Amino acid sequence: MAEAGIGVDIVEIARMSRVLEKTPSFARKMFTEEEQRYCDQAPRRAAHYAARFAAREAVLKALGTGFAKGVGRKDVSVSRDDHGRPIAVLQGKALQIAQEQEIVEVALSLSLTSDLAVANAMAISDDARPRPKQQREDERARVARSFREARSILDELERVQDESLASLTGETLIEHGGSDETHSEL
User: Fold this and answer.
1) Global pTM?
2) pLDDT tens digit string along 26-60?
3) Which of 96, 60, 104 minimizes the C-alpha distance to 78?
4) Which of 2, 41, 93, 114 could connect to 70 by a Cys-Cys bridge, CB 3.0–4.6 Å?
């Protein structure tokens, strides 16, 4: 399908805070247990919930759907990789939609300000994924090429030098099967 979809969403942290206070079951209904553990231990609990809510919306926008087409509340969630970076986790209908679109990766970026949580998502198919740059020639091949070029230059300099010496001494340069021989003219 060779496409990439982009999605962005912004959530007001104060609004998420009010929702969490008024509806204590909201976090349990909307977020996975992993997300709840992470957010509940964070110093800015509402901010992290807001970022994860924004991430859901951004991912679904990148896939070209919202909470429609049978996508459930927990079909998109946020986890973290070994380095602590956020990663989108798809399951259920969201995963099915991504597979149908041949999406191989959903890149995710989360940002927080004092007031806002922002999420950016990019759904990438294998055909749309940037290709790695051509690998430079390895060091050994580069050195070998450099020596061949230097040898060629030295051979040319030696030839010019031999010709110059021959013209100064009156000798003639005769080539025999790849070896150079000089003969004196009498």
Assistant:
1) 0.67
2) 999 999 999 999 999 999 999 999 999 999 999 99
3) 60
4) 93
3-state secondary structure of 134: coil
What does the DSSP assignment read for 37-86?
HHHHHSTTHHHHHHHHHHHHHHHHHHHT--S-TT--TTSEEEEE-TTS-E
For residue 45, which phi and psi values (nearest 5 degrees)?
Answer: -50, -55
Condensed to tens digits (0 to 9), the pLDDT of residues 118-140 reads 999 999 988 766 666 666 667 77
What phi and psi values does residue 71 have, to the nearest 5 degrees? Answer: -75, 125
Question: How distant, in Å, are the alpha carbons of 24, 44, 169, 182 from that of 13?
Answer: 16, 9, 93, 91
Contact 4, 123 (CB under 8 A): yes
State yes or no: 139 annotated in a binding site.
Answer: no
The reply, when asked if residue 57 is annotated as ligand binding, is yes
Nearest-10 Cα torsion for 177, 178, 179, 180: 100
Which residue is it, tokens 């909307």? 30
Give just the sign of the alpha carbon dihedral 155, 159, 161, 162.
positive
Domains belonging to the chain, first-starting first, are 4-125 (3.90.470.20), 139-184 (no CATH)
